[in-house]
Amino acid sequence: MKLAELSERSGVSPATIKYYLREGLLPPGRRITATQAAYTEEHLRRLRLVRALIQVGRMPVATAREVLAALGDDALDHHMRLGAAVWALPHGPEPDEGDPAAVAARGAVDELLERAGWDFGREVGDESPAYRMLVAAVAALHRLGYPCDTAHLLPYARSAGQLAVADLDLVEEYEREEEQVEAAVALTVLYEPVLLGLRRMAEAEESHRRFG
Amino acid sequence: MKLAELSERSGVSPATIKYYLREGLLPPGRRITATQAAYTEEHLRRLRLVRALIQVGRMPVATAREVLAALGDDALDHHMRLGAAVWALPHGPEPDEGDPAAVAARGAVDELLERAGWDFGREVGDESPAYRMLVAAVAALHRLGYPCDTAHLLPYARSAGQLAVADLDLVEEYEREEEQVEAAVALTVLYEPVLLGLRRMAEAEESHRRFG
Q1: Which chain A residues in 155-184 lie under 8 Å from chain B, judged by CB atoms?
Q2: Complex ipTM above 0.90?
Q3: Are residues A50 and A96 in the same domain?
Q4: First CA to last CA across chain A, in angstroms?
Q5: pLDDT tens string A74-89
Q6: Are A107 and A186 part of one and the same domain?
Q7: Same domain assignment for residues A92 and A39
Q8: Which of A144, A184, A193 comes nearest B137 by C-beta?
Q9: Are A105 and A159 within one domain?
Q10: Which of A190, B112, B154, B179 has its Cβ near the most Cβ atoms within 10 Å?
Q11: Are the C-beta atoms of A78 and B211 separated by less than 8 Å?
Q12: Which UniProt keywords apply (chains A, B) (predicted)?
């Protein structure tokens, strides 16, 4: 398809598509004349992912480029490619290792992984940016004196386990491996605001039930 | 307690506390000399909440001030005060009503509320910022061509329902009504990164189980 059709089908303006091409977020099309190139369904798919990262995930172009680079690492098996791409996403503040709250948080998180039976997470530990994101978030709760013991965290871990089953079911709706890896990244980012919105609505529902 | 003790117990510097006092995020202490004031446990609690909103929630001071104002509206019953305070939080982008994706998203969300049995949410509808947040998030999925039918959303709504039970259980660990309202706001904000971190870890766990 030509640039105009790629623009129409994606809802992204030609000027923005050209910018993404210049920035290396989209691979170049197949040149057909001096001024025109042809784009494929893969370009459309990649363009959707780029929009997800930049518009919804609010990622800088350089970060989006790193995430896309991680998608294409053929040296990894399927599980590792999924993981590598998600690991390249921004994960927020890092834990401050000098802070006693971070030490306490790490203890609570490690105990949580054990009690939840997350053996992969225990094995990978600190290497995982999601682990460090969790430690930093729990440290903030701890520092401010809000409840965040392993016992408090466990129901959240159980719900996260169910969410992950739904997430991977969505990923497996895609057939080809590279589609699955792209979808894993896009859906991780795009379902975050869905989840936070649903949680706030469910809180109102539960508050109404208890106090309404 | 004096300012120095308030600073030590909260981990917030005296200069920052003075800034919050000037900005009206903290009520003034009881003046004891021309240059000194006394602060109470309530100041400490409020200060922790302010830190949660500004540091973890990354809210501008003006937004934090609105959230705090909503906490103190005595005209509302307990359920409504909890709701009003959470409604004052930032909820991200609003749906674009001219966009066909937003119309489709609204249909999917309305059907979801019906199937999940969220009668309070159906009654409040569009008035709720969490509802509009959810519609905007689902519209982004729809626009980009990722799966977001009611059937896809339903498992997320069920997990959100369980999260809300955990959230309200945490809130009810506090005895007094005003503590509960403050905790509802703080815990809504502080548990968001906990939840997103746990989801990413659980995804890695589930991916390892399926493809590892």
Answers
A1: 155-170, 172-173, 183-184
A2: yes
A3: no
A4: 56
A5: 778 888 888 888 888 9
A6: yes
A7: no
A8: A193
A9: yes
A10: A190
A11: yes
A12: DNA-binding
Looking at the fold, whether A46 and A144 belong to one and the same domain comes out as no
For residue A193, list chain B residues with Cβ-Cβ distance below 8 A. 92, 133-134, 136-137, 140
The parent domain of residue A65 ranges over: 3-76
Residue type, B134: L
Q: Do residues A90 and A72 both lie within one domain?
A: no
Integer Cα distance of A134 and B191 in angstroms = 10
Instruction: Please name the residue of chain A whose CA is at the shortest distance from the CA of residue B181.
Output: A207
Q: What is the pLDDT of residues B52-105, one digit of tens each?
A: 999 888 899 999 999 998 887 777 888 888 888 888 898 988 998 888 999 999
Query: Facing residues of A30 across strands?
Result: A38
**CB nearest A78 (choices: B183, B198, B211):** B211
**Shared domain check, A89 and A72:** no
Interface test with chain B among A199, A208, A209, A210, by most B beta carbons within 10 Å: A199
Q: What tokens appear for B60 in the block?
A: 């501008």
Q: Quote the number of domains for chain A.
A: 2
Q: How confident is the model at residue B21 (pLDDT cuts 50, 70, 90)?
A: very high
Please write the tens of the pLDDT for every residue from A52-111: 999 888 899 999 999 998 887 777 888 888 888 888 898 988 998 888 999 999 999 999
B30 DSSP β-pair partners: B38
Residue B108 and residue B130: Cα distance in Å, rounded? 15
Query: Side chain identity at A15, as an amino acid letter?
Result: A
Domain boundary among A46, A76, A106: A76
Secondary structure class of B194 (helix, strand, coil): helix
Residue A30, SS3? strand
Q: Are residues A78 and B183, on separate chains, in Cβ contact within 8 Å?
A: no
Q: In terms of C-beta density within 10 A (0-12 exposed, 13-18 middle, 19 or more buried), how is residue B74 classed?
A: exposed
Q: Are residues A65 and A90 in the same domain?
A: no
* Helices (H) then strands (E): counts for chain B: 10, 2
